[in-house]
Amino acid sequence: MSHLTIPSRLRAQIHQHGDHSYPHEGAGLLLGNDDGRRREGVALLPLENRREGEARRTRYHLTARDLAAGEAEAEGRGPQVVGVFHLHPDPPAQLSETDRTLALPWFSYIITSVQGGRALESRLWRAEGRICASMTQERRTPRYRSRAARA
């Protein structure tokens, strides 16, 4: 499994997207490079939450067209789609059962908590369902926890 690096400028962009999407869940794709050992985010592709009505507050939906557009955008820029970011309006940046169920094992996921219209914290995870890092906007690098601490 690749170790994920997210530059501070991308974390700031995710948080800004959260501020603007509130009170709805926002989402998008993480573009990056992956050599099998190290995965690095290089750009974001914010997308529209396709859920309708009040469901937009608690769920996001990206269509197959959104993913295909992301792949085409990535191909044009050089990197690949390596993950998805989405925002939890008011709940903490924790995995929901829906997040676990819908996760694709080859993607990295970033969940950002947006409290009262202000993005506060983001967490990185992979499909095995464990949070693998926590990051806040003030920190330059994610705080990685040991495998034992995650268990």
Short précis:
By secondary structure, this protein is of the alpha+beta class. It is built from four helices and eight strands.
Can you tell me about this structure?
Helix content is 25%, strand content 37%. It is built from four helices and eight strands. A hairpin with a 3-residue loop joins β2 and β3. The C terminus is likely disordered.
Distance separating the two termini: 17 Å
How many helices? The count is: 4
Number of strands: 8
* Radius of gyration, CA atoms, in whole angstroms: 14 Å
Strand content: 35-45%
Unreliable residue stretches: 135-151
Oligomeric state of shown chains: single chain
Secondary structure category? alpha+beta
Give a topology summary.
Blueprint: E1 3-5, H1 8-21, E2 27-34, E3 38-47, H2 64-77, E4 80-89, H3 97-102, E5 108-115, E6 118-126, E7 131-136, E8 143-144, H4 147-150
Key features?
alpha+beta, Cytidine Deaminase, domain 2, 8-stranded mixed beta sheet, 8 strands, disordered C terminus
